[in-house]
Amino acid sequence: MTVLKTTLENGLTVLLKEVHTAPVASFWIWYRVGSGREHVGITGISHWVEHMLFKGTPRWPKGTADKAISREGGVWNGATWYDFTTYYATLPAEKIGLELEIEADRMTGALFEPQEVEAERTVVISERQGAENDPLFLLGEEVMAAAFRVHPYGHETLGHMCDLLRMTRDDLYQFYRTHYVPNNALAVAVGDFETERMLDLIRRHFGDIPSGNLPDGPSPVEPPQRGERRVVVEGEGQTAYLTVVFHTPPPTDADFHPLVVLDTVLSGASGMTLFGEGGTNKTSRLYRALVDTELAAEVSGSLIPTVDPFVYSLTATVRAGRTPAEVEERLWAELERAAAEPILEEELRKAIQQARAQFAYSSESVTGQAFWLGWSEIFADYTWFESYLDRLSAVTPEDVLRVARAVLRRSNATVGWYVPQGPSSEMEMSADP
């Protein structure tokens, strides 16, 4: 089915797609704000505001909306990322109007009661503290801070602890009233409905909400990297990790789809979403070079579409008895090979098939399709999602080689080591009775 795209008079963008394979529908409301639009002093505010929208309105007091969704057999959630904050529900098709009612209400009516703000401060701080127990979070935060000196992509979505401790209820509420307006939002519905009736329903719930005055000004532009950057993080544990990130073009660039293929060749097909991992990568080049040789216990890649240029990330779990230096040396040998010679036609076909399958899997449900239509509209437009497979299939070995040479350069890399300071696993084993 084709997608209808329109804009209401108040600036709300609407995407609708009929899918009649099952009597269900998924509705998403997206706001074009996330941690990639924050600055020091309010880092983590998008994520905290997202939490506050689950704390009730005068019409839907705390706890009543989620119970209403559950009573109808639906699922309900929200998420914050670099470029967006989104809320969604998937319900039996005849009940989807309930989600529209809830989202329209909390676009304007969220309470931000002081006691709830303080209670949620404890929650977001605990979430941050929990993440700090993960060496990969600590390493990733330092690597991204080194890779991005100017752009807010260098800040974690969870925010810095100093900002979480000092932000006030007024800070959060002002941020909410500034960004949660129709002309900064996108409504997406996919499922078993008639397009015109769904559009009328959206107009009925959202059409009278006034547009807002959005902050003016361009996004910060990250300057070119002029040489390899390195960070070393020391922390608890017995396991070492290696992460290498490379600056990449945005998904609207012609080199992005060859980069997807390159990632698949190197580390296996990536899921590219917030809701699942990629497929098996045991036949990928880096798995064979690092895991099969017992240098690493695991290796993975990450390539995520974003509004502004982002990074391609490779991470390896260093096997006990090995060092990050040994893993990095072998990793660079494989990356230099990828930049020196074209991949084989058979390797290309296999990589495209794997990437196509992973993408199809992530978008087979109405929830997945609604997600991809909305996310694509955030960083490009919805046709990016619809044309993705065709563009992927058009990639050639020469395209992959060109992108490998442009991206996989040492001068374009930020390298991070996590060096554990705990007792070695050998010592622990010798102490066991």
Structure, described:
There is one protein chain. This protein is of the alpha+beta class. It folds into two domains: 3-206, Cytochrome Bc1 Complex, Chain A, domain 1; 229-431, Cytochrome Bc1 Complex, Chain A, domain 1 (2-Layer Sandwich). It is 43% helix and 18% strand. It is built from 16 helices and eleven strands. The strands form two sheets. A six-stranded mixed β-sheet has the order 1-2-6-3-5-4, with helices on both faces. Strands 7-11-8-10-9 form a five-stranded mixed β-sheet, with helices on both faces. α1 (45-52) packs across α4 (114-131) and α13 (366-379) packs across α14. The chain is globular, with a radius of gyration of 23 Å. The chain starts with a strand and ends with a helix. Mean pLDDT is 94; it is low at 424-433.
Q: What are the salient characteristics of this protein?
A:
Cytochrome Bc1 Complex, Chain A, domain 1, 18% strand, alpha+beta, disordered C terminus, 11 strands, 433 residues
Indicate the low-confidence ranges by residue numbers.
Answer: 424-433
- Over the alpha carbons, how many angstroms does the gyration radius reach? 23 Å
Going by helix content, strand content and strand pairing, the class is alpha+beta
CATH superfamily membership of the largest domain: Metalloenzyme, LuxS/M16 peptidase-like
Architecture (CATH level 2) name of the largest domain: 2-Layer Sandwich
* N to C succession of SSEs: EEEHHEEHHHHHEHEEHHEEHHHHHEH
How many separate domains make up the residues? 2
DSSP E strands, number: 11
CATH class of the largest domain: Alpha Beta
Task: Tell me the overall shape.
Answer: globular
- Assembly state: single chain
Mean pLDDT, all residues: 94
Q: Span between N and C termini?
A: 65 Å
The major sheet is characterized as: 6 strands, mixed
**Spatial arrangement of strands, main beta sheet:** 1-2-6-3-5-4
Helical coverage, percent range: 40-55%
> Strand share of the residues?
15-25%
